[in-house]
């Protein structure tokens, strides 16, 4: 056990800045002193700086990519701030720049030269700043609709659901937004435990400052053709943005974002109603086996899929469960919980989802997701009929009321909003677009009461008879941060 070391407020502020991208925190001294004297809880203040990283979109010369960004909310009187995404190189060039909150901006790129991006928002444009890239590749081995939200850089990522099998081309994309080099390790775990890597390939991977690198997972362990693998990415030095990309010959490709941190109960929201194949992949990183109950939360309640009611996950090994066409015409979400509520074992998990059949298949991924918390945004949605579908899931026994807001489109329109009550143990779906909207628009979900609620967005753009789609989970935008009192015991941050 690590020694508990009390921290000063300045040290905590620095730690929060490293985690959330916050540059500075300012709170009126009088208010803070009064709160401390009255024993009030720590104040929450808007973040003043946010950092996002986006991976390089594609290696295909026919790729078409749309970048979209927004800061939700209304413009503050006299507010000042900047928010821009740049190419992730030392010779960075601006790709798009946000001018005011509540109005998304977009930019297009074509071919394999479309760059990975890094970006910073500060001032009144920082709280909740969100960005996404969506890429269409119509033909070839990497065909598909590939969507991914840009994320804050970090130091620890779990990717259950990747593969080194024949016919799969899976990569982990690493982007370093900083001015110093990052050093990364990648460990693979299959059904029998740790996968032996080729000497010198999986450790001490250097990512130069302001650069990006794609690492083929098959190259780390040549000859280890495993259908279901969990990749663990950690940094020895620095921080990176990390996202996996999975492609399967004849089926399609998409991004696989990192799973939520290991937890005893997980929610994987937004399985399409017409899914023809659903495969669950889970991994227990600790020293104990995990026995999980598997529930499908649908529109009217939760059920245990026949023949797939439980999954046993051995410690340090990747387990999988073929759920086939589990939704059977109704949208749903998967909820994993410990078979013995008194013995929760932390796990990570993701779903591989297939729509269509034969030569007209397309694949997407749903990682286990955090709740949306106070507010969460997905930046790129399309106004075409049935193109955008929001899935909202509340775990059993916890109803939630949320407000969903559609921003104007990048080319015009008026915002629209709707309140939704999600009964515990159910998944509700919603289609919402701005009035007269043109171009891509953002969807923002705010928790009004109850909860937690887990949300994902499915974007569908059929092409040549193929049901092209991509699914993104929504996570709390961390637009505010708690500023603790100086006298508070802050040692928990060092455990």
Write a short abstract of this structure.
By secondary structure, the chain is mostly beta strands.
The major sheet is characterized as: 5 strands, antiparallel
Oligomer: single chain
Low-confidence runs: 1-37, 490-495
Number of strands: 36
Taking the alpha carbons of the first and last residues, their distance comes to 8 Å
Class per helix and strand makeup: mainly beta
Mean pLDDT, nearest integer? 90
Instruction: Report strand %.
Output: over 45%
- Which range best describes the helical content: under 10%, 10-25%, 25-40%, 40-55%, 55-70% or over 70%? under 10%
Whole-number radius of gyration? 22 Å
Number of helices: 3
- Overall, the morphology is globular
Structure description:
There is one protein chain. This protein has 495 residues and is mostly beta strands. Helix content is 5%, strand content 47%. The protein has helices at residues 9-20, 29-38, 217-220; strands spanning 43-46, 49-54, 64-70, 81-87, 94-98, 105-110, 117-123, 130-137, 144-149, 156-162, 168-176, 182-190, 193-194, 205-207, 211-216, 229-237, 241-248, 252-256, 266-271, 275-283, 290-297, 302-303, 310-313, 318-324, 332-338, 348-355, 362-367, 375-381, 388-394, 400-406, 416-422, 426-430, 441-450, 454-460, 469-474, 480-483. Strands 10, 12, 13, 14 and 16 form a five-stranded antiparallel β-sheet that branches. The chain is globular, with a radius of gyration of 22 Å. The chain starts with 8 loop residues before the first helix and ends in a 12-residue tail after the last strand. The model is unreliable at 1-37 and 490-495 (pLDDT under 50).
């Amino acid at each position: 056990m690590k020694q508990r070391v009390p921290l000063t407020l300045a040290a905590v502020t620095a730690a929060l800045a490293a985690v959330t991208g916050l540059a500075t925190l300012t709170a009126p001294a009088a208010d803070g002193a009064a709160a401390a004297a009255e024993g009030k809880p720590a104040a929450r203040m808007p973040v003043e700086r946010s950092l996002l990283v986006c991976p390089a979109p594609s290696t295909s010369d026919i790729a078409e990519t749309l970048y979209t960004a927004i800061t939700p909310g209304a413009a503050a009187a006299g507010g000042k701030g900047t928010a821009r995404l740049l190419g992730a190189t030392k010779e960075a060039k601006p790709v798009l720049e946000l001018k005011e909150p509540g109005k998304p901006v977009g930019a297009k790129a074509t071919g394999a030269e479309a760059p990975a991006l890094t970006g910073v928002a500060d001032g009144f444009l920082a709280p909740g700043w969100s960005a996404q890239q969506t890429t269409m590749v119509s033909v070839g081995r990497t065909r598909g609709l590939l969507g991914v939200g840009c994320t804050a850089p970090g130091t620890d990522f779990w990717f259950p659901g990747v593969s080194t099998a024949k016919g799969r081309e899976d990569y982990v994309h690493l982007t370093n937004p900083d001015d110093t080099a990052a050093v990364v390790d990648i460990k693979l775990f299959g059904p029998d435990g740790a996968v032996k890597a080729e000497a010198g390939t999986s450790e001490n991977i250097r990512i130069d400052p302001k650069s990006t690198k794609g690492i083929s997972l098959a190259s780390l362990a040549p000859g280890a053709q495993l259908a279901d693998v969990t990749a663990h990415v950690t940094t020895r030095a620095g921080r990176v943005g990390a996202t996996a990309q999975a492609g399967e010959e004849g089926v399609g490709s998409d991004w696989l974002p990192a799973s939520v941190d290991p937890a005893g109960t997980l929610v994987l929201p937004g399985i399409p109603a017409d899914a023809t194949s659903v495969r669950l992949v889970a991994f227990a990183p600790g020293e104990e086996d995990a026995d999980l109950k598997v529930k499908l939360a649908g529109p009217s309640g939760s059920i245990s899929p026949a023949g797939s009611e439980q999954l046993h996950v051995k410690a340090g090994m990747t387990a999988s469960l073929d759920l086939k066409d589990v939704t059977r015409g109704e949208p749903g979400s998967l909820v994993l919980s410990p078979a013995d509520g008194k013995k929760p074992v932390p796990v990570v998990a993701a779903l591989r989802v297939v729509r269509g059949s034969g030569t007209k298949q397309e694949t997407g991924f749903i990682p286990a997701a955090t709740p949306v918390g106070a507010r969460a945004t997905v930046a790129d949605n399309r106004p075409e009929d049935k193109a955008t579908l929001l899935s909202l899931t509340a775990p059993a026994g916890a109803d939630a009321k949320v407000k969903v807001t559609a921003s104007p489109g990048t080319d015009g329109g008026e915002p629209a909003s709707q309140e939704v009550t999600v009964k515990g143990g159910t998944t509700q779906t919603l289609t919402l677009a701005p009035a007269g909207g043109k171009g891509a628009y953002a969807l923002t979900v705010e928790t009004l009461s109850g909860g937690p609620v887990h949300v994902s967005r499915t974007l569908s753009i059929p092409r040549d008879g193929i049901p092209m789609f991509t699914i993104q989970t929504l996570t709390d935008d961390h637009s505010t941060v708690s500023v603790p009192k100086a006298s508070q015991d802050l040692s928990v941050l060092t455990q």
